[in-house]
Amino acid sequence: MTKGVSNTFKKRNVNLTETIAKIFFLVCSLVSALTLFIIIYFIFTNGVPAMFQVGFLDFITGRTWAPEHNYAPQFGMLPMLYASLISTFFAFIIGSRIGKWCAIYLAFFCPKKIYKPLKTMIELLGGIPSVIYGFFGVAVIVPFLRNNFPGFGNSLLAVIIILSMMVLPTVINLSEAALRSVPKHFFEGALALGSTKTEAIFEIVTPAARAGINGAFVLGIGRAVGETMAVIMVAGNVSQMPGSISEFFSTSIFFAPVRTMTTGIALEMSYASGLHRDTLFGIGVILFTIIIILNISLTILNRNETNYAKES
To answer: Residue 11 — φ and ψ, nearest 5°?
Structure first.
């Protein structure tokens, strides 16, 4: 009898503990979701009205950013949007390719003796603060570009190089994890059917890990789009863009100073007021929208990859 009562109390205690744990985890999830909605509400309620007050098309396509002009302030963010998209695109092209190949090397080709030191260095690269990357850019990259290429060194090319370096650890670590998560019988089965090791890796394992690798790419893009401190230190921070189509397709654009969306917000938010301050929130709205589009694109891409794998 006593034993039965004891078991009943134990079951009640277990059930109570599980209930409390469920409530606790639910509250944590709700806090996370609420935080996101508060951020969205705060940014959009400040930024969207300012965008329409200036004129949505004028705000997006305007080529002049002169908010402190006494008589006719202008809020055209196109040069900053252009700089952010171009620098992110090229940093992604460089960083994603190098990062993916490095992940494949770590997962399949790297000798055990050098794996741990190499992996540690890559993880350390991901933990370096942005300002240190900026110092490296100012001390090494900018002088190198100034001495060997046109311009003063602070340029779009310097931004691309810095962002490519900063994207690498994210792409490498997540891509390697995706490659290692592929069941071993995929690789072994390919070898058994006569494929070489390289063929099995690139034709079987890598496509099977494509969803995880795509996720690594998107997170890398998010890191590049949102980077501020390192970019401020090497970009030159001039709001300008090519004046003609021919100039847009010339190499000179890479050696000109630029200002990205994040640096524009960071440089001016401390002293901005009124409509000027609200238009900076408008830039934040555009930046936030780009991130949302990237995440939606990743979801659709992964869904298509999953459907394709099921059909195969």
So the answer is: -65, -40
The reply to whether 80 and 36 lie within a common domain is no
Asked if residue 175 belongs to a domain, the reply is yes
Q: How far apart are CA 155 and CA 81, in angstroms?
A: 15
Task: Name 145's Cβ contacts closer than 8 Å, sequence gap at least 6.
Answer: 151, 153, 155, 157, 158, 255
Owning domain of residue 17: 2-54
Assess if residue 148 is contained within a domain: yes
Q: At what angle do helices 2-54 and 274-311 cross, to 10 degrees?
A: 120
Condensed to tens digits (0 to 9), the pLDDT of residues 194-214 reads: 888 888 888 888 888 888 888
Nearest to 277 by CA among 118, 23, 117, 50: 50
Q: Is the pTM of this model over 0.90?
A: no
Q: Tell me the pLDDT band of 143, cut-offs 50, 70 and 90.
A: very high
Render pLDDT for 81-120 as a digit per residue (tens, 0 to 9). 999 999 999 998 999 899 999 999 999 998 988 999 999 9
Q: What is the 3-state secondary structure (H, E, C) of 75-104?
A: ECCHHHHHHHHHHHHHHHHHHHHHHHHHHH
CB neighbourhood size of 290 (10 A): 19
Query: What is the rounded CA–CA span in Å between residue 261 and residue 263?
Result: 6
Mean of pLDDT values over 166-183: 91
Residue that is written with structure tokens 């949302």 in the block: 292
207: amino acid identity, one letter: P
